[in-house]
């Protein structure tokens, strides 16, 4: 029975994929003019995409190869849909500014299901704009300043536990980042049982994103949805304590509740609050964790950079005389550190491509893009364009001096 079920399931998946592929082949007639190959039936170019993605060079080789053959705009068929990749200044402007509603966000089905229907990442148009405004305000620099001492102390504490011990940096960075974000959003204490439960649920949710969307017990997707429900139950009790006025904190949730207390149009429902707290957790955690981990790797590989970084920080310590704590103004006065961070983000390219969906027909570089197409900005090629960043494979923070002066950094 189980074997029979599995066969039926596989047959259904293959049939669905086949239909999708045929459908996209016919719609691709409209985009015949865009160069590129669709690869094998059903799977398209998914295998080379995934194998390049997991290789040390990352997605860059997939892009390079096709850009050489087809140019800056090309089409392919990966992960079950026809996909257009584009790179360069004009593409970045159109796809990232989203001006005139040319493109909308493009999230996979699993992501949509896990983050919920009212997340900033799953809404479009006017609703998206409203959420962005409401949610953006409490995330300003001023809000960050309020949390600075907490972040600084936690960083020092965390690094002290590293002394004389082998650590798994990714794990350390993840746990640190989650503590910071959960504290900023809902004042979760960095230690204790609540934090442990929160982290356990978060990990399950996180790993469900890249899973097949089968709502069947035992699958990563199913476990993710259940963990999401447990996390929402925790948030429900926090939100109701706040709404009843029994608890007042200086965090993101409090700002949202207070700010829109009297204004019906701007009031966020509990569902919206929860979906967007989870969205910020996921978005902030994954990117920051990756950034910190790459930073440590690059510093390990480049001792001369580490030495200069140490010098800058030893000087700050001297200036502080060993008495006073690091302050906000000190953070804004770390020129070398700033370059190291920028170079880390360039070299690692935490988000190698941005996925959008054409919300209307538009043209770019002389090619017509049809409404509904998945259009993607290939960022990794911009960050590794030798015309913009000389010797792009090298980790070289001082390049930011030169490029800032010549103004070639933005291209
Ligand atoms: C730093 O310490 C020295 C000696 O302890 C003291 O004379 C000086 O005033 C201190 N400076 C600051 C900025 O606290
Ligand atoms: C680092 O990047 C930020 C954001 O793009 C920019 O504002 C800043 O000037 C950069 N710093 C340096 C030293 O280039």
Summarize the structure.
The chain has helices at residues 2-28, 46-53, 60-70, 89-97, 109-115, 125-136, 141-146, 148-160, 169-186, 193-208, 220-243, 252-259, 270-301, 303-320, 328-331, 335-348, 379-383, 399-406; strands at 73-78, 81-86, 103-105, 353-358, 362-364, 367-369, 374-378.
Overview of this protein structure:
This protein is of the alpha+beta class. The protein folds into two domains: 2-102 and 351-406, Uridine Diphospho-n-acetylenolpyruvylglucosamine Reductase, domain 2; 127-301, Cytochrome p450 (Orthogonal Bundle), CATH 1.10.630.10. It has helices at 2-28, 46-53, 60-70, 89-97, 109-115, 125-136, 141-146, 148-160, 169-186, 193-208, 220-243, 252-259, 270-301, 303-320, 328-331, 335-348, 379-383, 399-406; strands at 73-78, 81-86, 103-105, 353-358, 362-364, 367-369, 374-378. The protein has a five-stranded mixed sheet, with helices on both faces. Strand 5 (362-364) and strand 6 form a beta hairpin. Helix 9 runs antiparallel to helix 13, helix 10 (193-208) crosses helix 11 and helix 13 packs across helix 16. The termini are far apart. One 2-acetamido-2-deoxy-beta-D-glucopyranose (NAG) is lined by residues 321, 323. One of its GO terms (molecular function) is oxidoreductase activity, acting on paired donors, with incorporation or reduction of molecular oxygen. The chain crosses the membrane at residues 6-22. It comes from Panicum hallii var. hallii. InterPro entries: Cyt_P450, Cyt_P450_E_grp-I, Cyt_P450_sf.
